[in-house]
C-alpha cells in the first residue's frame, strides 16, 4: 500500500497523497492531447473536428464509470473508516460487476444509434462518415473505458494510488505508440486513432481487474471477490442495489459534471458552427485539450481527497475535516494562479502546435485560449466543493453544485453572451459561469456544513 486514509493531514501529506492521482490525471490528459495532435496534423481539420463532435457523446457514456468510481470510493472509505473491511471488499466487487454489465449494454445501443446521434450533435455531410466510424470503433472499448474511469478513484480507496499513476503511464505509452503507427505511418486517419484509443482502454480496464482479483499480486486494501461463490454468499450476503444506488447517487455530481461538460461542448460546437464554422469547432477542440490538461491538477486532487474525506466522515473526525477543507482552499488558490499564468503565457505556442498549418485558425485559437483560461483562477474551488460533498456522502448537494455550474450557468452564458459580445462571448461564457458558481458554492458551504467553516 502507498498511503493510508487515516491520521492527520499536513500540507505536505495532502500534497504527497494527491500527487499520484494528479500525475495519473495529467498523464491521461497528455495522451489525449497527443491523440488530438496526431489527428489534427495527419488527418486534417475535418477529421479533428469530427472527433471533437463525437467525443462529448462518448464521455456521456464513459462518465458512468467515473460516477460509480467516485461515489463508490467515498462509500468504501466510509465503510473502511467504520472498520468493516470484508464488507468494503464485497461492495467493491458489486460495483465492478455493475460497471461491466452497464458498459456492454450501452456500447451496443450507442453503436446502433451512432449515425442519428452524429447528425444531432451537429455533424455536417463532410464530417459525418468520420464521426460514425470513430464513434462505433470507440464504443467497442466502452466497457473497458468505464472500468478505467472507475479505477481512477478506486486506486485511492484501495490505498495504492501509485498503481493508478503507472497504469496511466502504460495506457498513455500504448496509445501514443499506436497513434504513431496507425495515424502517422499507416495513414489510417480517425480510424487508426479510434483503434489506438480502444486498445489503450482495454489495457487500462483489464489489468486492474486481474490485479484486484489476484491474492498474489494485490498489495492494496481492497479485494475483488467472487460474488457467485457459495461460501461468499453464505458468509456475507448483501442486497447489491442499495450499494449501487448509493454509489451512483453519491457520484452523481461527477457524472453531472462530465455530462454537463459534454452537453455544454455540444452547445459550444453548435454556436461555433453557427458563428464561425468548422474552424470554430477546431479551435474549441484545442481549447478543450488545454482545459483537460490544466483541470487535471484539480481533478486529481479531488479524486485523492474524496475517499480521505469519506474515511474521516466515517470515523466522525470533525477537526480533521475542518483542517483538510482549510488547507485545500489555500493550495487550490496557489494552483489556480499558477495554471492561469501558464495558460496565458503559452497560448500562442499551444495554438501553433495544433493548428499552425492554418494562420487564421491559429490566431483564432490563441485568442480563445487567452480568454477561456482565466476560468482556472476559480474553477478549482468550485470543483473541490462538489468533491467535498461527495466525500461527505451528500450526493444531492454535490450534484446540485455541478448541475448549476455547467448546465445552468455555462449553458445559459454560451447561448446569451454571443448575442451581446459576438464570437468573444462564446469564450467568455465559462468565466461568467465559474464566477456565478463560486457564489453558489459559498452559499452551499454555509447552508450545509457551517460547522466545518468555524
Task: Provide the fold topology.
Blueprint lengths: L10 H71 L3 H36 L7 H13 L1 H16 L3 H25 L3 H25 L16 H6 L4 H11 L1 H24 L2 H37 L3 H28 L1 H9 L3 H14 L6 H13 L3 H27 L1 H26 L6
Helix pairs in contact: 1-2, 1-3, 1-4, 1-5, 1-6, 1-8, 1-9, 1-10, 2-3, 2-4, 2-8, 3-6, 4-5, 4-6, 4-10, 5-6, 9-10, 9-15, 10-11, 10-12, 10-13, 10-14, 11-14, 12-13, 13-16, 14-15, 14-16, 15-16
Concise synopsis of the structure shown:
The chain has 454 residues and is mainly alpha-helical. 84% of the residues lie in helices and 0% in strands.
The percent range for strand residues is under 5%
Helix content: over 70%
User: Could you describe the largest sheet, including whether it forms a barrel?
Assistant: none
Tally of DSSP β-strands = 0
- Please tally the helical runs, counting DSSP H or I stretches of 4 or more residues: 16
Which segments are poorly predicted (pLDDT under 50) over 5 or more consecutive residues? none
Rg (CA only):
21 Å
SSE string, helix = H, strand = E?
HHHHHHHHHHHHHHHH
Mean pLDDT: 87
First-residue to last-residue Cα separation: 34 Å
Structural class: mainly alpha
The coarse silhouette is globular
Task: Provide structural commentary.
This protein is mainly α. 84% of the residues lie in helices and 0% in strands. The chain contains 16 helices and no strands. It has helices spanning 11-81, 85-120, 128-140, 142-157, 161-185, 189-213, 230-235, 240-250, 252-275, 278-314, 318-345, 347-355, 359-372, 379-391, 395-421, 423-448. The radius of gyration is 21 Å and the shape is globular. The model has no long low-confidence stretch (mean pLDDT 87).
Amino acid at each position: 500500500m502507498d498511503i493510508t486514509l487515516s491520521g492527520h493531514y499536513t500540507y505536505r501529506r495532502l500534497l504527497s497523497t494527491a500527487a499520484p492521482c494528479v500525475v495519473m490525471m495529467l498523464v491521461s490528459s497528455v495522451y489525449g492531447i497527443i491523440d488530438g495532435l496526431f489527428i489534427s496534423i495527419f488527418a486534417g481539420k475535418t477529421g479533428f473536428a469530427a472527433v471533437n463532435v463525437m467525443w462529448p457523446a462518448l464521455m456521456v457514456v464513459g462518465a458512468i464509470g467515473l460516477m460509480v468510481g467516485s461515489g463508490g470510493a467515498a462509500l468504501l472509505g466510509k465503510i473502511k473508516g467504520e472498520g468493516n473491511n470484508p464488507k468494503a471488499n464485497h461492495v467493491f466487487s458489486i460495483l465492478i460487476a455493475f460497471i461491466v454489465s452497464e458498459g456492454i449494454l450501452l456500447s451496443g445501443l450507442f453503436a446502433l444509434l451512432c449515425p442519428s446521434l452524429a447528425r444531432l450533435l451537429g455533424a455536417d455531410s463532410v464530417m459525418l462518415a468520420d464521426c460514425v466510424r470513430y464513434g462505433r470503433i470507440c464504443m467497442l472499448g466502452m466497457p473497458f473505458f468505464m472500468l478505467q474511469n472507475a479505477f481512477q478513484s478506486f486506486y485511492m480507496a484501495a490505498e495504492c494510488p501509485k498503481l493508478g499513476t503507472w497504469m496511466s503511464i502504460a495506457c498513455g505509452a500504448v496509445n501514443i505508440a499506436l497513434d504513431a503507427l496507425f495515424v502517422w505511418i499507416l495513414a489510417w486517419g480517425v480510424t487508426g486513432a479510434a483503434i489506438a484509443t480502444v486498445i489503450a482502454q482495454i489495457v487500462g480496464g483489464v489489468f486492474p481487474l486481474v490485479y484486484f482479483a489476484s491474492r498474489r499480486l494485490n498489495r492494496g486494501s481492497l479485494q475483488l471477490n467472487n460474488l457467485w461463490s457459495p461460501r461468499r454468499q453464505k458468509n456475507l450476503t448483501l442486497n447489491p442495489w442499495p450499494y449501487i444506488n448509493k454509489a451512483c447517487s453519491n457520484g452523481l455530481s461527477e457524472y453531472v459534471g462530465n455530462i454537463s461538460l459534454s452537453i455544454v461542448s455540444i452547445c459550444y460546437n453548435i454556436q461555433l458552427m453557427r458563428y464561425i464554422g468548422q474552424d470554430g469547432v477546431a479551435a474549441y477542440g484545442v481549447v478543450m485539450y488545454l482545459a483537460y490538461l490544466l483541470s487535471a491538477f484539480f481533478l486529481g486532487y479531488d479524486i485523492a481527497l474524496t475517499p480521505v474525506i469519506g474515511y474521516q466522515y466515517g470515523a466522525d473526525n470533525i477537526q480533521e475535516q475542518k483542517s483538510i477543507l482549510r488547507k485545500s482552499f489555500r493550495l487550490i488558490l496557489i494552483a489556480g494562479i499558477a495554471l492561469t499564468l501558464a495558460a496565458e503565457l503559452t497560448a500562442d505556442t499551444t495554438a501553433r502546435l495544433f493548428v499552425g498549418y492554418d494562420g487564421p485558425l491559429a490566431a483564432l485559437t490563441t485568442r480563445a485560449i487567452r480568454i477561456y483560461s482565466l476560468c482556472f483562477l476559480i474553477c478549482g474551488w468550485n470543483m473541490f466543493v462538489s468533491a467535498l460533498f461527495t466525500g461527505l456522502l451528500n450526493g444531492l448537494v454535490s450534484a446540485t453544485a455541478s448541475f448549476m455550474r455547467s448546465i445552468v450557468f455555462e449553458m445559459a452564458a454560451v447561448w446569451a453572451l454571443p448575442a451581446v459580445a459576438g464570437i468573444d462571448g462564446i469564450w467568455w461564457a465559462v468565466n461568467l459561469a465559474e464566477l456565478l458558481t463560486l457564489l453558489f458554492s459559498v452559499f452551499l458551504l454555509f447552508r450545509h456544513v457551517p460547522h466545518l467553516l468555524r
